[in-house]
Amino acid sequence: MKGNTVPVLVLVGEYDLALTEEVMRATWQAWYPNCRIVTLRGSGHYPPHETPVAFATEAEAFLRV
Questions:
Q1: In a domain, 3, yes or no
Q2: Which of 40, 42, 32, 45 is nearest to 6 (CA)?
Q3: What is the tally of structural domains in the chain?
Q4: Are 32 and 25 in contact (CB under 8 A)?
């Protein structure tokens, strides 16, 4: 799968101490060159529950492209 050009969106919680933006760059972005990483402000490990509007907004914008 390395080098797969499928567009990927990774949403990271600003306060997630385990799955940080840095970790996502080293993992997801290393495998998927078209990976877009967005940090959701005010969220921890569960962005869909903690910041649902921001989560949905980013997901919808990504799917529109």
A1: no
A2: 32
A3: 1
A4: no
